[in-house]
Specification:
The chain contains two helices and seven strands, in the order βββαββαββ. By secondary structure, the protein is α+β, with helices and mostly antiparallel strands.
Amino acid sequence: MTDIFDNTILCKKCNTKMERARITKNRFLFRAVVCPKCHEKIIHPVDEQEYNRFINLKNKEFRVKMRLVGNSYAVSIPKEIVSFMEEQEKVMDEMVRLCFEDIGRVSLNFGKVLNRK
């Protein structure tokens, strides 16, 4: 299947050939084309669709049970979240990084973790 961005795209405002670019928003990478003359941008439709899926998933609140397993507690991660992460080709190991961030807040990081400030 060919990609729409493999073709020459002309800017609708100034009729100039647009150049490929990468745009980052909320740590999400978009493929795009940008007009060098008027700076008009077109984001790849598939990337925009995945970003909207990410935003919907991010805004969704999951209620999961905490279970006692031996001397520790376990929390299940909804399949919807794990499936999305796998589709984004993120590195997912069996081990995750768990951090106590604040009162009532715990973070769970999959794969490589950036340095925290």
